[in-house]
Amino acid sequence: MFAFLSSQPVQTALIVGSCAALVSALIGVFTVLRGNAFAGHALADVSSAGGAASFLWGISPLLGFLGMAWIAAFGMEFLGVRKARERDLATGIVLGAGLGFSALFLYLDVTTTSTTGAAVSVMFGSLFAISRGLIWPAILAVLAVFLLVGLFYRPLILTAVDPDLATLRGVSPRWMGLLQLLVLGLAVAVCALAIGAVLATALLIGPAGAAIRLSRRPAQAIFWAMIIALTAVWLGIWMAYESYYWFSGNAWPVSFFVVVLIFLFYLLAMLGSSWQHKYQRRGITSLRRLQEP
Amino acid sequence: MTNQSPILAVADLSVDLGGRSILRDVSFDLYPGQLCALIGENGAGKTTLLRTLLGLITQRAGTVLIGGAPAREHRELVGYVPQKINFDPDLPLRTRDLVRLGLDGQRLGLPFFNGRTRYAVDQALQAVGAEDFADQRVGELSGGQQQRAVIAHALVRKPRLLILDEPLANLDFGSANALVDLLGRLIVQQKMTVLVTAHDMNPLIPVMDRLVYLVDGRAATGTVAEVVQAEVLSKLYGYPVSILHHGGRILVLPDAPENADVANMNRCAGHGV
Ligand SMILES: Nc1ncnc2c1ncn2[C@@H]1O[C@H](COP(=O)(O)OP(=O)(O)O)[C@@H](O)[C@H]1O
Ligand SMILES: [Mg+2]
């Protein structure tokens, strides 16, 4: 255990991983509430183009992921129309275009620079290989997300409940939608850095989806999403580290363990909530029986 | 009544949607303490009219004044209960959270505990009889309970004008009566003004002071006695209709079935018992 914690790559992985867990849990709850899971997934996938470009131009991968996620967010907001079906369509179109660029940049990475493994680390992450210099930018991104979501907490929830009711309280659903996409972009960038652009969705949607089933209040859902995400990331990092010894010198990737753990937690939450429902219903009917004369 | 200024003044309102004329020259005034029923068949333009009053749709012509000012400036005077909100069963939001959003949903910062807020929320829950399911998720409630939750959301700021879109449409007989009673109580006890849409006027007859009768985007307005007359409604429908009174209920029927086409007959009959 001491060897585990004293290793520098492990420390960096734990810090950046925790950042990704916290930020994705928070924004994930709002994303799931608004039925925006597909948009979240698309932003994450498209951000891979930015990650790939960052290798090419030698800029920070965090900036690469973030820039591309924001461009995609604006694209979706610009193309996107009110109706859910048109929103999915706009999202799909932006997703396709973005992945095209990703293919190009990854190809150029391999042919024009000496970066081997760029594709794997952009798409699926390599948490143990993150440079220490990215710790502070990641923490800053997390603080920005917490500040913005904390500030606009109630308007965001009200908009998720019903855009008309929000408008009548003087909240603009349009601005809230844009704010949410921008914050989602920040979260996606940190997640993509940690477990890869393609797998970022798992961290964004999984813990939030599980927590929502277990909670009766938004704050409660955010709390449980954070617990689930942090547990998955910490356990995943530890298991990946230990897997070096399990598989005689061939450590499996962190992302794999994190994603599998999230999936397991989601299954558990589903079982838990259906058990809870059954129990509640039985509770209510037995109460009724008592009250009947 | 008329010595007061109207809480809602609608003058020559015309609305187009998607290039089609939906409302034409609708005018009516509503004074404090009145209950006004907005009656019309499906597609007559009731929801469009309400959304225009609330400033959610912009009119082509005409004016809407709420408390003497343009609608958008006096939104805090108005509470709105949409026809149907689809609450996801998994939505982690209790009834009391939804009600609280009606009070401070526009505020910045986190919703910390606040005694005064809690009191206002409890009052609103009590007014609609929602105490029993205050701590349940909104998505798990029955349709009628969800409606009461949304009414509490609208009431919690003590609006002067409460607007409800087809609140009786999905309720069984008992719940519908309970809701009509509630509306009557709000007018008397809280001096509220209520505007409520329905496709059948009968359940509302005991409590309504005024009637706006919409047919294809045109309106006849006045008291029940003024509007529900063969002459007035015949002119509105564009063909002769008769009015039957039966056991305190009102039925509007086309006069000469051999002249009116079947579609029109059915449309008319839809307003009856
Ligand atoms: N966004 C829209 N674009 C075009 N037409 C619309 C739109 N919304 C409603 N309509 C049309 O306006 C008419 C009135 O609709 P509505 O106000 O919803 O009627 P009601 O509430 O009385 O049933 C209907 O014919 C409907 O098809
Ligand atoms: Mg309607």
Automatic annotation (TrEMBL), chain A:
InterPro entries recorded: ABC_BtuC-like (IPR037294), ABC_TroCD (IPR001626)
**Keyword presence, Hydrolase:** no
Return the protein name: Metal ABC transporter permease
Q: Which UniProt keywords apply?
A: Membrane, Transmembrane, Transmembrane helix, Transport
Stated membrane topology is: Multi-pass membrane protein
Broad class of the protein's primary localization: membrane
Recorded hits in Pfam families, A to Z, give: ABC-3 (PF00950)
Q: Does the keyword Protease apply?
A: no
From TrEMBL, chain B:
Instruction: Give the UniProt keywords, A-Z.
Output: ATP-binding, Nucleotide-binding, Transport
What domain of life does the native source organism fall in? Bacteria
Q: Does the keyword Transport apply?
A: yes
Q: Which PROSITE patterns match?
A: ABC_TRANSPORTER_2
Q: Name one GO molecular function term.
A: ATP binding
What PANTHER family does this protein's entry cite? Answer: METAL TRANSPORT SYSTEM ATP-BINDING PROTEIN TM_0124-RELATED (PTHR42734)
Q: What is this protein called?
A: Metal ABC transporter ATP-binding protein
State the species of origin.
Acidithiobacillus sulfurivorans
